[in-house]
Amino acid sequence: MTLVVESPGLRSLVQDLGRPGMGHLGVSPSGAFDRTALRQLNLVLGNEPGTAAIEVLGGGLVLRAASSALVAVTGGAGPITVDRDPAAYGRAIPLRAGQRLALGAPTAGLRAYVGVAGGLAIPEELGSRSADTLAGLGPAPLRAGDHLEVGPPGHPPDLEDIPPLGRTGELTLEVALGPRDDWFTMAAVRRLLEAPWQVSPASDRVGVRLTGPVLERTRTGEMPSEPCIRGSIQVSTDGQPILFGPDHPVTGGYPVIAVVLDRHTDRLAQAAPGQIVRFSRISLG
Questions:
Q1: Quick one: pLDDT at residue 161?
Q2: Domain tally for the chain?
Q3: 192: domain CATH number?
Q4: Rounded CA separation 222/108 (Å)
Q5: CA 102: distance to chain centroid?
């Protein structure tokens, strides 16, 4: 069974749940930016939760079924068609040989996930089929003409439609301060928690860049590189925050003022340029 890429859209990558536990090798976990969407997708299709699928940035993907297949779309919501007829979001869609599945630009959110019953059967690298855009590991971004092999399908369950995960309006993320909040003035820490931050178009899977008021430091020197995790909020020399995504470097030399709770980092995958982000502090004590 094969799916043929007729158009890859803006940027489409193969992703599973990544390569956790390899920081000592200088390799970040990578994997799906919106892990919730990937798990939902595989639930709908009867696949294992971490089965590889396509992460689509901004729509435009067109796939042709070379033989009969069962596909689904989750994550950011936008138009879905099969041979130009509207198709349902969040449920299994049967494709006959020769039919085309197309994704339009998302109307809520930023990234959609497209999967197939049986999953994408492409070679693994370091135990994962994920594309790591920083390290250059895993499969290359999809290109027109690519043939994607599909594994043996299972038995999709009979489920209600999965609701879209894309959000409009302001996005609130829970954060824990530290470990280097003491490198910043008290006013800067308050500003981080109180100001509206706008998602920059320069954001990617390595980091979501925010623009807003300057976060002033109390220390002017630079620090030795320290370990970083997904959700770390580094503040660069221009005083603007960068929220680390799945392809983040495993160490960083800018101070981390706070860390987004892991359960909220999936929301960053759907933060579109220009969207407002706010932070809500929680205590881990």
A1: 65
A2: 2
A3: 2.40.100.10
A4: 39
A5: 20
